[in-house]
UniProtKB/TrEMBL annotation, chains A, B:
<keyword id="KW-0805">Transcription regulation</keyword>
<protein>
    <submittedName>
        <fullName>TetR/AcrR family transcriptional regulator</fullName>
    </submittedName>
</protein>
<feature type="domain" description="HTH tetR-type">
    <location>
        <begin position="21"/>
        <end position="79"/>
    </location>
</feature>
<dbReference type="GO" id="GO:0003700">
    <property type="term" value="F:DNA-binding transcription factor activity"/>
</dbReference>
<feature type="DNA-binding region" description="H-T-H motif">
    <location>
        <begin position="42"/>
        <end position="61"/>
    </location>
</feature>
<keyword id="KW-0238">DNA-binding</keyword>
<dbReference type="GO" id="GO:0000976">
    <property type="term" value="F:transcription cis-regulatory region binding"/>
</dbReference>
<dbReference type="InterPro" id="IPR001647">
    <property type="entry name" value="HTH_TetR"/>
</dbReference>
<dbReference type="InterPro" id="IPR050109">
    <property type="entry name" value="HTH-type_TetR-like_transc_reg"/>
</dbReference>
<dbReference type="InterPro" id="IPR036271">
    <property type="entry name" value="Tet_transcr_reg_TetR-rel_C_sf"/>
</dbReference>
<dbReference type="Pfam" id="PF00440">
    <property type="entry name" value="TetR_N"/>
</dbReference>
<keyword id="KW-0804">Transcription</keyword>
<dbReference type="InterPro" id="IPR009057">
    <property type="entry name" value="Homeodomain-like_sf"/>
</dbReference>
Length: 200, 200
DNA sequence: CATAAGTCGAACAGGGTTGTTCGACTACCT
DNA sequence: AGGTAGTCGAACAACCCTGTTCGACTTATG
C-alpha cells in the first residue's frame, strides 16, 4: 500500500487503472447530462446514465455533493474558456458583448438546470464564489463599455451583469422548451441586451 | 351522513365549523410563507409555521400537492388583481408598463420561491396554464405598445413578455438577497425594461 | 499468467418524506 | 349542557434517497 516507487514515477499510488480513468470521465459526462436535465438527479440515475453500477460512483467520488462540485467546476472552466475565446477585452464594447453572447448561450442551454442543482445541494456562497471567475469577464466588459461611453451609466454595474446573465439563461430555457427557434436566439439576445445596456 | 338539509341551506354539509375555517386560512398563509422561503418546505414545516398539527393539514388538504396548488392559485389570483389595478389598458403603453412594473415587483419579491416550488412539484404545463391569465395582461399591453409604435416590433411578442417576467423576478431576487436597494428597484426595473422594449 | 485493481449486485442502516389510522381530547354550535 | 365536528400526538407503512459493506466476479497490467 506504500510502495511509493513503482516505475511510473507516481508518488502515492495516484495513477489509476486505465479502466478506472475511463469510467471517471464517463461518470462526469453522465452526471453533467443528468444534472442538466434534472437538478434532483440521484446517484442511481447518474449510474444508469453512465452504464455503471451505483457502487462504482462511490468508488471514485466520496459523495453526491463532491461529484456535483466536480461537475460544476469543469463546466465553469469550460464556460470561462469559451468566454475568453470571444476576447471580450478587444474591439468596441457593443461588438465584444455581441460576440460573447453568441458564443455563450448554447453552453447555458446545454447545461440547463445544472446551475439549479448546484444551488440546491451546495452552499449558496460557494456557488457564487465559483462563478466569479467567468462573471468577472462580463463585469469588466460592462465597465469598459461604460468608460468608453457605449453603455449606460445610470444603473449599477452589478445589475447590468445580472441582466445579461438572467436573459442569457431565459433565452436558453425558451430555446430548450421549443418556444424560441434555435437559429433566432443569437440575434434576439443581441438585440435585447444591446438595447438594455447601450447608453442614452 | 346524508342529512342534506340542516337549516343553513347547505347542500352536502360543506359549511365547516368556524374553528376549521380559521385554520384553513392559517394553513394557506403559513404554506404561502413557507414555500416562498423554501421551495422544498415539507408538510411538517408548514404545520409548524401554522401552529397546527400535521394531521390537521391533511384534514383540510388531501395532499401536499393539492395544498401547493391552492396556494399557487390564490397567489396568482392576487397577482392578477394587482396587475388589473394598474389598469394596463389605459394611457400611453410606456407609462402603463411602468405602472405595472412598480406595482408588481414587490409581490414577486414577497412570493419568492413559491414559483420554484410549483415548478418542482406540479406538472410543468399546469403551472404554465395557471399563469396565462395574468400573463395575458402583459402580452396585451406589449401588443398594444407595438401597435401604437411605442414598443419594438423586431422581436417576438412572447420573448418580450418573457423578458419582462424574467427581469421582474431577477430584480426581486436581488432585492431579497440584499444586493439591490429596495427603494431603487422600481426605477431600475423601469429603466431597464423600457430600454429593452421601446421601439427603434 | 498471476495478482492486484476495479466492478457489480444485493443487502444494510439511517434519515427524510408523504399519507393514514387510532384513540383521547377540546372547541364549537345549537 | 351535550352532541358533534374538529384537533392532536403517536405510531404506522411505504417509498426514496444517501452511503457503506460484503463477497464474487472481471479486467488491466506488469
Amino acid at each position: 500500500m506504500a510502495h511509493t516507487t513503482d516505475r511510473g514515477g507516481r508518488k502515492a499510488g495516484t495513477r489509476k487503472r486505465a479502466d478506472a480513468e475511463r469510467n471517471i470521465v464517463a461518470i462526469i459526462a453522465a452526471a453533467t447530462e443528468s444534472f442538466a436535465r434534472d437538478p434532483d438527479a440521484s446517484m442511481t440515475d447518474i449510474a444508469k446514465a453512465a452504464g455503471l453500477g451505483r457502487v462504482t460512483l462511490y468508488a471514485h467520488f466520496p459523495s453526491r455533493e463532491q461529484l456535483l462540485r466536480t461537475v460544476l467546476a469543469e463546466t465553469i472552466a469550460e464556460s470561462t474558456r469559451i468566454i475568453e475565446a470571444a476576447s471580450p477585452a478587444e474591439g468596441p464594447p457593443a461588438e465584444a458583448l455581441a460576440r460573447m453572447i453568441r458564443s455563450c448561450w448554447p453552453l447555458l442551454s446545454r447545461f440547463g438546470s445544472l446551475h439549479a442543482a448546484a444551488q440546491r445541494a451546495l452552499p449558496a456562497d460557494e456557488v457564487r464564489r465559483r462563478h466569479d471567475r467567468p462573471m468577472a469577464h462580463v463585469e469588466r466588459l460592462v465597465a469598459r463599455g461604460r468608460a468608453e461611453g457605449a453603455f449606460r451609466t445610470d444603473l449599477p454595474v452589478e445589475w447590468l451583469v445580472t441582466t445579461v446573465y438572467t436573459l442569457l439563461h431565459a433565452a436558453a430555457d425558451e430555446a430548450a422548451a421549443g418556444r424560441l427557434a434555435t437559429e433566432a436566439v443569437g440575434e434576439i439576445l443581441e438585440k435585447t441586451l444591446l438595447a438594455a445596456l447601450k447608453s442614452e
